[in-house]
Amino acid sequence: GAGVSQSPSNKVTEKGKDVELRCDPISGHTALYWYRQSLGQGLEFLIYFQGNSAPDKSGLPSDRFSAERTGGSVSTLTIQRTQQEDSAVYLCASSLGRLGSNEKLFFGSGTQLSVL
Amino acid sequence: GQNIDQPTEMTATEGAIVQINCTYQTSGFNGLFWYQQHAGEAPTFLSYNVLDGLEEKGRFSSFLSRSKGYSYLLLKELQMKDSASYLCAVKDSNYQLIWGAGTKLIIKP
Questions:
Q1: Which residues of chain A make contact with B101, given a CB cutoff of 8 A?
Q2: pLDDT of A100 above 70
Q3: Are A25 and A32 in contact (CB under 8 A)?
Q4: What is the pLDDT of residue B2?
Q5: Is 70 exceeded by the pLDDT of residue A48?
Q6: End-to-end Cα, chain B, rounded Å
Q7: At residue A70, does pLDDT exceed 90?
Q8: Cα gap B62→A37, rounded to integer Å
C-alpha cells in the first residue's frame, strides 16, 4: 500500500476483554515495529520484527501482550485481559530493514485504545 | 541506563526562529533522528545526523555534536503549521531506536 495502515483507528473496550490491533506495513518493508504512546509521553518500544528473524520482544510490558507477523507482512498486536493502564495510542511503523543505514521509519496513524 | 532529554514545551512567535535541544546518553551511537508529530497524527521523519555538523533542509536544520551527546533542531521563519511535537531519537550500538519524550512547540501569531 501507499502507507502504513492501522485498524481500528479507535477501540473502546471493557476491562478484562481481549483486543486485537492490526498493522499493514508498506509493501516491501521487512522491518516492522510496534510502539505505545501515552498522552504527552514519548514512544515506548514494544516489539520489532525483521524479516524471518525471531522478533525482539524485549519491550512487551507483560505476558498479556503478544504480536504476530504473518507472511512477513501484516502484523497483529493482541492484548489479553486489558487493564485501564493499557489505554494509549498504539503506533505501528515499518522500514526497509537495512541495519546501520539512515533509513527512516514510516508510521501508521495509530490505534487509540481506551479501556473502561 | 539510556536517556534522551528534551524540553517538554516551547513557545515561539510566527516568523521567528526557534532551537529545540536534545541531549542523549546511550550505549553507543549510530545516528540521531528528528521526527515531527502533529496532534493526533503519526510522527513523520524530518532529519538524520550521524556525523558532527549542521544538516540544512529548507527552513529546518539539524546539528549534531557526538562528543557532547547533543543535537538541536533549528526552525526558521516559523509558520503556524509548525505547531507540533518534535521527537528526538538515537540509534544505539544495537541499532535500537531510543526515543525522547518530545518537545511540544506552540507558535503564536
A1: 40-42
A2: no
A3: yes
A4: 85
A5: yes
A6: 40
A7: no
A8: 24
